[in-house]
Amino acid sequence: MKTSFKAQIITLLIAVLGALAVGAVLLLIVHANPFRAYEAMLFGPFSDLYGLTETAAKATPLLLVGLGIVIAFRSGILNIGAEGQMMMGALAGTVVALNLQRMPGILLLPLTLLAGFAGGAIYGAIPGSLKAYFKVNEILSTIMLNAIAQQFMVYLLRGPLIDPTEISYGTGFPQTQQLPESIWLVRLIPQTRLHLGFVIAILMAILVYIFLWRTVIGYRLRAVGAGPQAARAAGINVETGLLSAMVLSGGFAGLAGIVEVLGIHHRLLDGISAGYGFTGIVAALFGRLHPLGVIPAAFLFGALMLGADMMQRAVAIPAAIVQTIQGLMVLFVVGSDIFIRKPDWARQLLGIKLLKKKSAMGSYPNNQSPPLVPK
Amino acid sequence: MINQLLEFSTIIGILTTAIRLATPFLLAALGEMFDQRAGVYNLGVEGVMMLGAFIGFWVSLRTGSSYIGILAAIFAGVLMGLLMGLVSITLQAEQGISGIGLFMFGVGLAGYLFRITIGYITNIEGFQPIKIPILGDIPILGTVFFNHNWMVYFAFLMVPISWFILFKTTWGLKIRTAGMTPEAADTLGLSVVAIRYTCLVIGSVAAAMAGAFLTLGHTNMYADNISAGRGFIAVALVYFGRWNPWGILGGALFFSFVDALQLWVQVLGLKIPYEFAVMAPYVLTILALVLAARRIWEPAALGKPFNREGD
Question: Does residue A275 lie in a domain region?
Fold first, then answer.
C-alpha cells in the first residue's frame, strides 16, 4: 500500500511537470522566459504573508467544491455543475441573510450557511434525479445548468436584488447591498483575506472522510460508484444513492458559494464563482478523489490561481494560460491513471520490458489502487 | 410586442438566421456522431470549437483569406482529435473527464492565443453568401434556404453523406461494429484503435469547422466564449438525434430556430428579460435529453475503453 501511495504521488508529479512543460512551450511562443514565469507563478504565492493567506483564502472554496466532487465521483456521478451550484448556494444564502437582517448574527449566520448549502443541494438534485430516474447524462445536464444559473443570477442581480445605491448613483453594477456585518466570517489574521471559512472547509474535509469511509450511507454511496449492478444485487437503492450523492455534492458547492460571499465579498456579485467550480474538479482529481487528499490539492490550485495573477503582473502573460495548463493537467492526470491502475500494461505500452514482473505485480496490486473514476 | 415577432419580414429573418445557425450544430453534432458510433464520446467539442474559431479567424486576418483560415482550423482540429485519442483511446482514460480536460485546454488556449496575437475586437470580411442560381430567385424560399455562404450548404450536405457513409459503406459498418462490439471487430481483424482514432479526428475536424463557421461565416469577428456552449449542445443533439444523421438534422434545426428566436428577441428589444432569452436553449437541451432518455439506439460500447485483455 505504501509503495502504491508513492507511485500515485510520483505519477501525479509527472503529470504536473508534463502539463507545465507543454505550458512552457506556449510561453516560449511569446518569447517569455518560462522559468521566470513559473518562478512568479509557483514561488510568488509562498514568498510572504500576503501570498500564503491569499492562497489559503483561494483554497477554501476549492476545497469545499472539491469535497462535493469527491462525493459525487466516488458515487459514480460526474458532477460538472459545481459552478452553477455555487451560484445558487450564494444566491439562496444571500436572499435569506438580506431578508432576516434584524436577526442576531449568532442565529443568522448558521441559517445563512444552511441556506447556502440547501441552495446548492436543491440545484444539484435536478441533475441527480434526471440521472437516477431518466438516465440523462449528468455531465451535459450540469453544464447546461451552469449556464442557466449564471443567467438567472445576473437577472436577479440586475433586477430584484440590485443594491439600491447602485440605482441611485446610476452605476448599475450587478451586485446586492452589503450583508449585515454580524454574519461576516471572521478574518483569522487581520489585514488579510484569510477567514473562518478556511477552518470550516478543513473540518468538512475530515467530516466527509468519516462520512464516506466510516458510515453505512457512505459505504453504500461508494458501493453504487464501484458497481451499480453489484450494489443493486446487495439491496442498495442505486437511484437514491445517485440522487443523494448529487444533493450532497451540490450542497458543498453551495456552501463554497455562500462562504465566499460571507468571507470575502460580504455581498453577492456577478463572477462569484470565479472558475472555482471547474478548478475544484481539477483539485479533486488531483487529490485522487480522497477528501484528505483534496486539502493539499486545493492549496496547490489556490496557489496556482494566485500565481497566475502574479505571473500576469510579473511577465505580462495572459491569465488564460492557467486555464490552458489546468486543462492539460486534467488530461495528464486521467491519462496517467492507467500507469497506476495497470502498471504492467502501461509499461508494455512504453516499450519498457520490465525486469521482474512478479515484483511489479506485488508492489502495485490492482485491487489496492482504485481507478480514478469509478465505473 | 408580440406583433413585432409575427411581422412577415421578421419571420423571414428568423427563419433565415435559423438555417444559418444550424450550421455549427450540424457540423459539430455529425462529427460527434462519428466519435460515438465508434464508441468514444468527446465532451471536449466546445474546446475544439473555440480553438477552431480562433485559429480560423486569426489566420484569415493574417492572410486575408478565409479559405486559408478554414484550412488552419481543420489542422487544429486534427491535432485536437489526436490529443483526445491519445488520452481516451491509447491511455484508456475515463472519457467524461478527459473531455472536460480537452474543453478547458481548448477554451484556455484560444483565449490565451487571442490575447497574445490580436487582443482586441476586430472584423474580417468572412465568407460571403453565394446565391444558388434559379433556386435563389424563388421568393421567400430563396432567401431562407438558398442565399447562404458555402459552409451552410456544406453542413446540410453532410447529413445525407454521413448517413450514406455510416449505413451504406463497409467503412460505416466497421465504425458501427467498433462502437457496438469492439471484441467482434477485433476478432475480424479490424483495428478498433485505428477506427476510433479516425473517427475522433473526423469529429474534431468537424467541431473545429463548426467553430470556424462562427467567426468566418457568422459574426466575422472573434470574442471570448463565442461558442457559448454550442459544443455541449451539439453533444446533447447526438443523443437527441439517436445517433442518426436525420435525427441530428431535426434537432439541429429545432435548436437553431430557438437560437435565432432568442437573438431576434434581443435585437427587437422585446420585454422578455434578456437573460431568459439566453437561457432558453440550455433549458431546452435538458428537456431534449430527458426526451432522448430511452437509449436503445445507443452504441453498446460507448465510453468503454477497448483493450485486448478485455478488462
Answer: yes
Nearest to A320 among B99, B112, B276 (CB): B112
Nearest by CB to residue B239, choosing from A137, A322, A323, is A137
* Alpha-helix runs per DSSP H in chain A: 2-29, 34-43, 49-74, 82-99, 105-134, 138-158, 164-168, 197-214, 216-226, 228-233, 238-260, 276-286, 291-315, 320-341, 343-350, 357-363
* Position A360 confidence tier, pLDDT thresholds 50, 70, 90: very low
At A49, is the pLDDT very low, low, confident or very high (cuts 50, 70, 90)? confident
State the CATH class of domain B2-119+150-291: mainly alpha
pTM: 0.86
Residue bearing the bigger pLDDT, B271 or B31: B31
The answer, for A53 touching chain B at a CB cutoff of 8 Å, is no
pLDDT at A357 over 60: no
Mutation target for A interface from B86, B103, B116: give the one with most A CBs within 10 A.
Answer: B116
Residue A259 lies in domain: 58-298
Report CB contact under 8 Å: B115, A318.
yes
Question: Is the Cβ of A141 closer than 8 Å to some Cβ of chain B?
Answer: yes
Per residue in B187-220, pLDDT (tens digit) is: 888 888 999 999 999 999 999 999 999 999 888 8
Answer yes or no: are the C-beta atoms of B127 and B73 closer than 8 Å. no
Tell me whether 0.85 is exceeded by the ipTM: yes
Find chain B residues with C-beta within 8 A of A336's C-beta. 91
What residue segments make up the domains of chain B, in order of their start? 2-119+150-291
